[in-house]
Specification:
The complex is a heterodimer of chains A (about 300) and B (about 350). Chain A is mainly alpha-helical and about 300 residues long. Chain A has a domain of about 170 residues: MetI-like fold (Orthogonal Bundle). Chain A is about 70% helix and about 5% strand. In chain A, strands 1-2 form a two-stranded antiparallel ribbon. Helices cover about 25% and strands about 35% of the residues of chain B. Chain B is built from eight helices and 20 strands. Chain B has a six-stranded mixed β-sheet, sandwiched between helices. In chain B, strand 4 and strand 5 form a beta hairpin. The radius of gyration of chain B is 24 Å and the shape is globular. The model of chain B has no long low-confidence stretch (mean pLDDT about 90). The chains are: A mainly alpha (about 300), B alpha+beta (about 350). At the A-B interface, helix 8 and helix 9 of A face strand 6 and helix 2 of B.
Chain lengths: ~300, ~350
């Protein structure tokens, strides 16, 4: 009895299975070696004791790094609550949140304006929005120093119209805020514009036809339909802003630290790698919780829509 | 006539300078209260532009539109007592059917209970009770169309504007919706202004219709006036199938290449004239007749047979079970042209 030859379907299934794994493999390797592996190393470092000159003491496990985030030992060796790091976290959070709100307030009208232009002008305007990407962000941040510092362009400009005295703009939360809003604005405009560009403007006409004025049409038709773009814009701005490093480094100096600076410090001057790693994981956990909340909310919206 | 809408000398010019396009050119017409009025014409004739002028989406360059005696100039779309059923329906995808229908009422700050009642009544009117909680994407094209209708009618507008509202439906559904629209118009007592390029729709539904051509009104009348008495070659050609006969007026007859056609007495002697005759009004005979011609093609169409004749003429003969004589391809036949079927056209040749 001869063995039954595999049917076409079986053959296709076999190729399909092989092909599927073969196609996933490169991506899986990338993710493992450039994301999972480094994170495992970081996780390991975060539960080790710090070495005396940077690095870690291998084999010496300790939960101190995570404890240090909230508690510290006072002179008499008692554990007391230390809010220094929490305050840096909360400053980072509020700076990022305000950045998100401000970029949204500036970005939505801009995106709406661009989306309402004739196609040719739309292209030109979107090109203008992308122009900042042509120059290194570091260089652009340095130029903000030139603008904001005492005796800088802003102050000199004000002196021309009679202002005397110093503004002391640079190295403040304000300067960091300006820098964050400036650098993340395009990341808010682009996704919102994309969702508005796809919007069927006849729906807005229908809203007008049904008695909605401009404000009502915006609130009841345009905003709900642009919601996915607004959501991705907020994520694209908030999360990188939360982890931003050199904008507060350059514009905030030592007075306006953000989480990014704190983490960098642990791997640099403070030579406490485990604490730096623990801070990174605290930040990661915080972002994951936020994303989870967002995903749950968005899912509910999707369910409500279907 | 108790006029609902009075349109006087409305022109719309798109663009400027050398590229300016006259979408509407001095259009004047009146639409009566509770009338089913149709704007008919090919694409680009300005019918939709005129509708958008009434809705307020287009601002006339000149002229005025009055609704129940009130000038609409300067009123934005959301302040006009008119509602539109859009060609694409333009239902809000993020809202349910009921929320879509309630949209206009909510804008007018109608009480919640009242809104609920109206939405229920509207769903019933368009036979979609029980569909209120669905999203537009879950409905068929015909159902979406009815939701769009309900959404517009819920605001009890003085005028309902329908922009090619049936063209996206398939034939069967379209025919059902024609009857439905007509029923709704009778039941609600609202003035309907309907835009279409489909002459069948225009003829079957309208109380009156305006045939439009390149931004101007070519003719206004009841469907039978337009069909039986087209004034121009354009209207005769656009509505239904037509034979055009040209010749010289002699002794109250039209002398054509293939014979003499009776014509009304008031046409000037010796002038060049074209008349329109509908194919179903002509009669085929073996001997005699006003005109003589030869059959070039026979098309059997079930209820009738279309004979194509030399000289670009067509005759429709009803098929009533062999009672009418059949003619063979290539046969020489005579055509009887009744005087009542002859419609002289205003434009020469």
């Amino acid at each position: 009895m001869t063995r039954a030859a595999p049917t076409v379907k079986q053959r296709l299934e076999r190729i399909d299975l092989l092909g599927r794994w073969g196609l996933i493999l490169p991506a899986a390797l990338m993710i493992f070696s450039f994301m999972a592996l480094p994170m495992l190393v970081m996780a390991l470092i975060s539960i080790l004791e710090p070495g005396n000159f940077g690095g870690v003491k291998w084999g010496a496990y300790s939960g101190d790094a995570y404890q240090k985030f909230i508690l510290e030992r006072d002179l008499s060796d008692h554990l007391v609550v230390n809010t220094d790091y929490l305050s840096i976290f909360s400053r980072s959070f509020s700076l990022s949140a305000v950045t998100t709100v401000l970029t949204l307030l500036l970005g939505f009208p801009s995106a709406l304006y661009i989306a309402l232009q004739p196609p040719k002008r739309r292209q030109i305007l979107m090109f203008l929005v992308s122009i900042p990407f042509w120059t290194n962000l570091l260089v652009r941040t340095y130029s903000w120093i030139l603008l904001l510092r005492n005796g800088g362009l802003i102050q000199s400009g004000l002196e021309v119209i009679g202002f005397r005295g110093s503004l002391n703009l640079l190295y403040t939360d304000f300067a960091v805020q300006v820098g964050l809003v400036y650098s993340f604005l395009p990341f808010m405009v682009l996704p919102i514009y994309t969702s508005l560009e796809k919007l069927d403007w006849r729906l807005v006409e229908a809203a007008f036809d049904l008695g909605a004025n401009r404000w009502s049409a915006l609130r009841r038709v345009i905003l709900p339909l642009a919601a996915p773009g607004i959501a991705s814009g907020c994520i694209l701005v908030f999360i990188p802003a939360l982890g931003s490093y050199f904008i507060p480094e350059l514009l905030g100096g030592s007075r306006a630290l953000m989480i990014g600076n704190l983490i960098q410090n642990q791997f640099g001057a403070s030579r406490n790698w485990p604490f730096g790693a623990a801070l990174s994981f605290a930040l990661l956990a915080f972002v994951l919780v936020l994303m989870l909340l967002y995903a749950l909310r968005f899912q509910r919206n999707l369910e409500a829509q279907s | 006539m108790n006029s609902s809408i009075v349109i006087s000398n409305v022109s719309v010019i798109f663009g400027g300078g050398a590229n300016a396009v006259k979408a509407l050119d001095q259009v004047s017409l009146e639409i009566a209260q509770n009338e089913f009025f149709t704007l008919l014409g090919p694409s680009g004739c300005g019918k939709t532009t005129l509708l958008r002028c009434i809705a307020g989406f287009e601002i006339p360059s000149t002229g005025s539109i009055r609704l129940d005696g009130v000038a609409l100039e300067g009123l934005p779309p959301f302040k006009r007592p008119v509602n539109t059923v859009f060609q694409s329906y333009a239902l809000f995808p993020h809202l349910t059917v009921a929320q879509n229908i309630a949209f206009g009422l909510q804008e007018r700050r109608v009480a919640k209970a009242e809104i609920e009642r109206t939405v229920g009544r509207m769903l019933e009117l368009v036979k979609l009770s029980g569909y209120g909680a669905r999203k537009p994407a879950q409905l068929s094209g015909g159902q979406q169309q009815r939701v769009a209708l309900a959404r517009a009618l819920a605001n009890s507008p003085k005028v309902l504007l329908l922009d090619e509202s049936l063209s996206a439906l398939d034939l069967k559904l379209r025919q059902d919706m024609r009857l439905e629209l007509k029923r709704l118009q009778r039941d609600t007592g609202i003035t309907f202004v309907f835009v279409t390029h489909d002459q069948d729709e225009a003829l079957t539904m309208s109380d009156r219709l305006a045939v439009m051509r390149s931004g101007q009104v070519a003719q206004i009348g009841t469907p039978s006036q337009i069909y039986d008495h087209p004034r121009s070659k354009y209207v005769a050609d656009f509505i239904g199938d037509t034979n055009f006969l040209s010749g010289i007026v002699r002794d109250n007859r039209l002398e054509t290449q293939s014979g003499f056609v009776p014509i009304p007495a008031d046409l000037p002697q010796g002038s060049k004239q074209t008349v329109a005759v509908r194919p179903e009004r002509l009669r085929l005979v073996s001997d005699g007749g006003d005109l003589r011609s030869r059959i070039t093609q026979i098309v059997y169409m079930g209820n009738e047979t279309m004979y194509h004749l030399e000289g670009d003429m067509r005759v429709r003969v009803p098929n009533n079970a062999g009672a009418t004589p059949q003619y063979a391809l290539g046969a020489e036949v005579g055509l009887v042209v009744p005087l009542s079927a002859v419609q002289p056209l205003e434009d020469a040749s």
